[in-house]
């Protein structure tokens, strides 16, 4: 009985008319190994015949094309033999998880202690480090959200973004930096909520001093 070939899903066949090469992937992380390139004798003969045929324009070129087409369409024993050698070369770097059936890289995605892949049996040290980092980040966010970053910021004052006269940006000033027009801002009295402007020294409703008034 012919020997069966493992790794039938997680590899790419990079073989060409010049030879054979395969790339094998880990089913979890996607990283993997590239097998050494093996020259195809049939492919080399086909290339030579195609080259001669290109010079002579005769039947040799057509023979070369036929050789190449057969190799590409069938693959054949030479292709299978090359794949077996590639599998044998990379197999020591992979382990198959008996729980989920995945082929995983031995270096990163295999839990040697548990004898399973890291999806079925996560490495506790890595999970602990990740959990600690996540908890630290969560606690840091809570502390940041509790901090008042606006205590010195007047959020009641109505800010005029553009000069009503010329349309220039005011950049938070009391006068337009382009035309010099006074920018009348309206805001609410902190005590009674009545409307105030920068020109009002006291609130007309409750008499509270306007903190934005400049003598």
UniProtKB/TrEMBL annotation:
Write down the Pfam families for this protein, in alphabetical order: DZR (PF12773)
Instruction: Quote the InterPro entries the UniProt record gives.
Output: DZR
Top-level lineage group: Bacteria
Q: Where would I find the DZANK-type domain in this sequence?
A: 163-207
Q: What is this protein called?
A: DZANK-type domain-containing protein
Question: What is the taxonomic lineage of the source species?
Answer: Bacteria, Candidatus Falkowiibacteriota
